[in-house]
What we know:
Elements lengths: L2 E7 L3 H11 L9 E8 L13 E2 L10 H4 L2 E9 L12 E8 L4 H11 L4 E5 L3 E3 L3 H7 L7 E10 L24 E5 H6 L13 H11 L3 E12 L8 H21 L3 H7 L4 H10 L15 H23 L5 H5 L7
Parallel strand pairs: 1-2, 1-6, 2-5, 8-10
Antiparallel strand pairs: 3-4, 4-5, 6-9, 7-10, 8-9
Helix pairs in contact: 7-10, 9-10
Amino acid sequence: MNASLIIPTHNRRDTLTRVLATYCRQDHRRSDFELTVVDDGSIDDTSSLFEGLEKKELDGSERIPEKYRNCILLIRQGWYSPPSRSSHALQPVFLRFTRIVKSGRSVARNIGIILSSNPLIVFADDDIFVECSFVKKHVESHSLDDRTVVMGRVIHTRSIENPFAAWWKLKDINAAFLATGNASVLKTHLIDAGLFDEGYSVYGWEDFDLGVHLKEKGIISVKKRIYGYHYDPPDHSLEPERVYEKERERGFSAVYFYKNHPLPWVRRFTLINNRPLQAAVRILGCRNWFLSKSKISAFRGILRLLIRYKGYFDGVRDGKRHYMIDRPSSRKMGLIKDR
């Protein structure tokens, strides 16, 4: 079975270059898989990596909805080889690069799925380094008529120079039905489930949401020893404001996730109603004093944790206001129902 790997990206040119090199070391036949990189409005010159590929014009033969045609700025495709950073031989891979206006991760992935040529979709991220047998293991885990989501393992690493040296840790446990850092499923099931909900306009939870719909369709999720290594930058290199804003978006999306799926496990998992924890974090992060720092240096682990939780719960607060959750009118309008 042939596979299409969907990799959305945004402003990670240098990391993406290194990540793509790991696909050029795969032990699977190059003719049996393709990479689909969707650039979601980057402003860091990501597109220059693919200037050597042939420009492709959309015509009437592609069954692409009009709303997506209006998003697409550029498509290039061809055999791609990144600059070599090691002595290991790099073999070209077929890559389709699509640049779109900034539209969010759901739209980026949906466009990637629609443009893909193969029956098996493999999801990965632009900061996930993959083992040499990554594609082969995903392909061999499926048949043309299976009803399965295959979830690989993601190991967090602080080293961009040697990501594969990281060991599995407790923080690497992932019980999600579908998490798009390392997963695969047949394209037909994704289309049947409605693809990714594009109401997730900012970071977070869109893959969990799609996982709920896939499960409702009778798809099962299985875990496999297929390894991806997520580059998690060291604390001293992080800017507090960026960490805060990313988590604030994730908190905002958590409320939309609960609005769509008002289930007890979603409420517990997202922490959106954990008022004691929210109050404690609000006090410790009063007035967002940590944003005055240029880097996360002192008390690195504790400070990073505080920034993440403060950002997340501020996003939850904003999400509840936006979606009118926890207001009397919201229940009268039927927007949310506890089950």
